[in-house]
Amino acid sequence: MGKLNAHIIPVMSFRQNCRLLFDDENKKGVLIDPGGDLSHILEAIDITGVIVEAIWLTHGHIDHAGASMDAKDALGVEIIGPQIGDKILLDQLVETAEQYDLCDPVRNCVPSRWLKDGDIVICGGHILKVLHSPGHSPGHVIYFSEDERFAIVGDVLFRGSIGRTDLPYSNHDDLMHSLYDKLLPLGDDVSFLCGHGLGGYIGEERHTNPFLTRACRTIPIQAEYLNQ
User: Fold this and answer.
1) Which residues, 6 or more positions from 69, have their beta carbon under 8 angstroms from its beta carbon?
2) Other Cβ atoms within 10 Å of 60 Cβ, number
3) Residue 172: phi, psi to the nearest 5?
4) Count of CB atoms within 10 A of residue 109's CB?
5) Can you tell me the distance from the alpha carbon of 33 to that of 227, in angstroms, rounded to the nearest whole number?
6) Which end of the chain is more exposed for a tag (fewer CB within 10 A), N or C?
7) Is the dihedral of CA 39, 57, 111, 24 positive or negative?
8) Cβ–Cβ < 8 Å for 35, 59
């Protein structure tokens, strides 16, 4: 078994980071958050030669899950995650697509398996722990590899920012608890990939991200959020 590697596929007008996470030796891996542009995703899978064994979802927003059912059919694999709190979002994907006037075909998503805090998932032989991290959405999860010191954080944390909480079913206090109680304790040396934009290191965000200062933990800041 080799090292975990990631190939990022920006999709949709949201420029969401759909990710192929895989072992660099056996090429077995998972597809994370196929929000749309399925043809581009399938092309990337073909080019990289990754053997996709499952689809993982960090949460149920349309830019992360909109193409998940079609990807499931195309790849013949199961959809795993998120936590069941996001069922309400996954049940409304078609309605949400109409609201955003999206051209890509969208189907409501029915995961093969819901996740809960502390669950274990496997990617190419690598063990990752599931951390339920609500706030941006009620059922958001993070995938963390202790061995690789690496996390897929979805829309909980960004470089220099944090996830939006002005959306339906989001909650600012819950997000801050997820950041301080789940994500930051993983360690400053942990690298991360997020749902939009560049990844980074938890330590760098702890010291430089203005949304992680003590003052910002208690002051409402939704109006200052980046458009993520």
Assistant:
1) 79, 107, 108, 109, 110
2) 30
3) -65, -45
4) 26
5) 18
6) N
7) positive
8) no
- Whole-number Å distance between alpha carbons of 102 and 134: 26
Strand partners, 122: 127
C-alpha to C-alpha distance for 168 and 182, rounded to whole angstroms = 22
Question: Is residue 123 within 8 Å of residue 129, measured between CB atoms?
Answer: no
Tell me if 182 sits within 8 A of 192, measured CB to CB: no
89 touches 81 (CB < 8 A): no
| Cis peptide bond upstream of 82, omega within 30 | yes
Six token digits for residue 98: 């109409």
CA distances in angstroms from 143 to 10, 15, 58, 65, 159, listed in the order given: 19, 21, 8, 16, 18
User: Is the backbone peptide bond immediately before 185 cis, with ω within 30 degrees of 0?
Assistant: no
- Residue 148 CA to residue 77 CA, distance in Å, equals 25
Residue whose C-alpha is closest to residue 191's, from 4, 2, 51: 4
Residues in contact with 227: Cβ distance below 8 Å, sequence separation at least 6, in sequence order: none
* Residue the block writes with tokens 């330590």: 203
